[in-house]
Each structure stands twice: as structure tokens, then as C-alpha cells.
Amino acid sequence: MIGPLPSSTEVCIVGAGPSGLACALSLAARQIPFVIVDALAEGHNDSRAVLMQASSLEALAAINPQLSADIVATGIQSTVLQTIDLQERPVFRLRMTDIAAYTKYPFCLLTPQHKVEEQMRQYIGNKIHWNKRLVDLKEDGSKYELQFESGEVLTARYIVAADGSKSHLRSLANIRFLNPYTNMESSPGSSSDLSFVVADVLLSSPLPANIPRDTLQMMVGGGGVVLTAPMLDTTSRSSNLFRLYLGVPDTPPRNPDAAYLQTILDARGPGSHLKTHSVPQIARVLHSSRFRTRPALADRYVQRAKGGGAYILLVGDAAHKHGPAGGQGMNMGICDGVSAAQAIDEHRNAALGEGKGRDAVEIMDGYSTRRRAVAREVIDMVEGMTELEKGGAGWIPYLRVTALWMMFKMPFVNGMLAWKLSGLGHAKKP
Ligand SMILES: Cc1cc2nc3c(=O)[nH]c(=O)nc-3n(C[C@H](O)[C@H](O)[C@H](O)COP(=O)(O)OP(=O)(O)OC[C@H]3O[C@@H](n4cnc5c(N)ncnc54)[C@H](O)[C@@H]3O)c2cc1C
């Protein structure tokens, strides 16, 4: 059993999703005292991210190589990402192996987010204070005072806001969350939001040959993406477990059933426009949900307390939000978490006069500027990919797909996109 919440700490991480967990692991490795809290009663188990990129595996391996090795063991290494059109012609096959010279992880790892979080929690040990919902915040000279729904109060010098896209901390710190293209705050559920359905399904045997078991495949051009990602099924040992991501133009039901999902596959999934293969059949839905996205970016990542040396640092979805194309959200969040821990470490050293002349305020500003620029770049990439996925009728989508097909014939274009998707560019120079 974990003990009661202490009354003070150096760093308080609010949110034990992948971003908060990554920050906790990095702080622990640096021997910086911290407390991590979450409003939930235990770790979530929903279907969310399914892709892990080399950048986040590298970031976690720098803390503990065994952690990344354990995470890799939970998934399928997709060395190619395949995109096909409605006629099942290849639009491109993105070879992740092109980045092999720069990383131990030249693949996209297909593994569900809850398994990644489970592994990270095991390395943190029994340190997460569950059932602690942050409700308010006060400045107390050079510390923040965090108030929880339970009535408990905790003071901390650094707060890491890892509390997700609806971040309460971001609101308490008066940091705006704006659409980076309009600079406007868009209200939830606005008409420009994109809807997706995410479902873990068992497909019927035999699997048609146009559904690869070792590769992520996207089918584009039908008005919304149809993505199939094979997953390791450790419980039933079936190799027909897939995560589906389906882009939908209207509002899907809250928990789409097999009939709803099958209708989409029949209309614009593999086998729908070619009679050489049949459409995969859904035997069972294990979990399904819907979600909507619109891009948003915090106008700054760091808030400094008026009293002086206390800080709030935003990480993960609390700082940025975008669609699922390219599987970037969780990865960026993990890298933010590690980066925030590094900034806190450097800031403490600078404040103690051990920072090799570095200005303490500059360190925090540097974190904000650097990670915000990364998010902006990723949002642009995701938006471009989402447009491609939508496809649709007419010359413009057709020309876009044809241009891509031609560009991918050039090896350096493949290498460049694999590099961009991996996120390594933000950590390493090629
Ligand atoms: C359906 C769906 C599909 C997705 N698919 C992908 C994908 O394919 N690829 C990808 O990279 N990303 C995907 N994402 C996004 C990815 O899941 C997020 O980017 C990732 O979870 C962000 O992690 P985080 O730790 O920043 O936030 P979260 O995972 O949201 O964690 C925030 C935590 O903070 C806690 N919390 C919130 N408020 C409080 C409070 N007041 N007090 C205490 N605790 C609080 C919450 O309980 C939660 O545990 C998807 C998201 C969804 C919803």
C-alpha cells in the first residue's frame, strides 16, 4: 500500500498517463524527489494509441534500456507502413528500415497504449497516488499549493501538468489552448472537428490476403481512413486481433457495434472495390469508442509563479492536441515528459549555482520554446496526412495521391518521411 499524500514535495506530476509516467521515470533516474497523482482509481484500459515511434523508445531507453526492451516485447514491429487506395493499388510503402543507421528501433511498434503504460508503471513501482483529483491551485511565495478533491493539500516548487487535453491545470494557470491556424479557442464539438472510431476486433478466419498480419495498413480515398493494425493477442493467442481506426464524416455512436463497423469496411475497406479479395469480417468487438479531434496548441508551455522560483510545465496532451494520423500524440507526450524532467534538473542546478553559468529563467523558456516548436511541426505533419487520408472524389485528391506515389519512388523522400515520423529529428541530428 502506498502511504498518504505528503504535505510537500519538490515536483508534483498531475496525471499518470504516458506523459506523466515518462516524466516520473526520468525524475527518478535523476534522483529528484517527486509525487505523482491521478484522478482515476487505477490506470485506464481503453483503446487509444497503438503506435510507438523510435523517438519515444529511445527516450525511455536512455532512462533504462530494459524498459524499452520490455515494451518492444509487447508489440509487433511494423518495418513498413503501407498505404493503398480504394482499388488496393499501393500509394506508398514507407520503409522505416531507412532510419536503421540512427536508431536501435527502425520500425513502428504496434502495441496498445495501456500496455505501454503498464510497463512504465512497473518500472516506477508503487508510487502513484490514485483517486487524487486536483481541483485548485494557489501561489505561496516560491511554491505552489495544490488542492485536491479529497481535501488534501500539497506544496511543490515544480508542477508538471500531465492532465490531458482538458487540462484543469492549464486553465488554472491561464494558459490558452488555441487552434494554431486560426489562433482562436475552438469550443468542443465544433463542426470542424474530425470524428474517428477506434475498435479492437477479432476478425474471422481465414483472414483475406489483403489484411497484413505484420504491417500497419491504411486505406485512403473513401472519405476517411480505414486503418488496420495487427496486435499481439496474449490472452486468446489469436493472430486475428486488430485495432481499427476509421475516419467518419458524421457523429458515430458512442460504442460502435460490429454491424456499424462492418458497414464501413463493406463500403470503403479492403475488398470493397475489388472483387479479387473478400472484405474482412468482424467476428467480435472487444472494445470500441469514438473520438473527435481538432488541433490545439498551448500558447506557452511554462508558467512562472509571481512570487519567483516556482513553475508549472505543460507536457503531453495538456500542451498539444491533434488527430491520430501518423501516431504521434503519445510519442510526443513521452518525449515532453523526459524533456520537462531534464529542464527541472537543469533549473535546480542553475538555481543552486551549479548550472555552468546558465540562467535559470532561460532554461524554462528554452523548454517551452523547444517543445512548442516540435508540437507545431508535428501538428502540420498530422494535418497534411489527415487531408490525404480523407481523399474523396475529384481531381485534387487524385493528383495529391498520384504526386505522392511518384515522390515515394525516390529513396530520399522515403528516408525523409520515415525520419520525420519517427520523431528522431527532434532529438538527434542525422
Ligand atoms: C480514442 C483515442 C485514440 C488515440 N489514438 C492515438 C494514436 O493512435 N497514436 C497516438 O500517438 N496518440 C493517440 N491518441 C492520443 C494519445 O492517447 C494521447 O496523446 C496520450 O494519451 C497523451 O498522454 P497524456 O499522458 O498527455 O494524457 P492522458 O493519457 O490523457 O493522461 C492524462 C491523465 O491525467 C489524469 N487527470 C486529468 N485531470 C486530472 C486532475 N484534475 N487531477 C488529477 N489527474 C487528472 C487523467 O485521469 C489521466 O490519467 C488517441 C487518443 C484517443 C482518445
From TrEMBL:
One of its GO terms (molecular function) is oxidoreductase activity, acting on paired donors, with incorporation or reduction of molecular oxygen, NAD(P)H as one donor, and incorporation of one atom of oxygen. Pfam families: FAD_binding_3. The keyword Flavoprotein applies. The keyword Flavoprotein applies. Its cofactor is FAD. Transmembrane segments: none annotated. Keywords: FAD, Flavoprotein, Oxidoreductase. Residues 9-380 form the FAD-binding domain. It comes from the Eukaryota. InterPro entries: FAD-bd, FAD/NAD-bd_sf, RIFMO-like. This is FAD/NAD(P)-binding domain-containing protein. It comes from Roridomyces roridus. The lineage of its organism: Eukaryota, Fungi, Dikarya, Basidiomycota, Agaricomycotina.
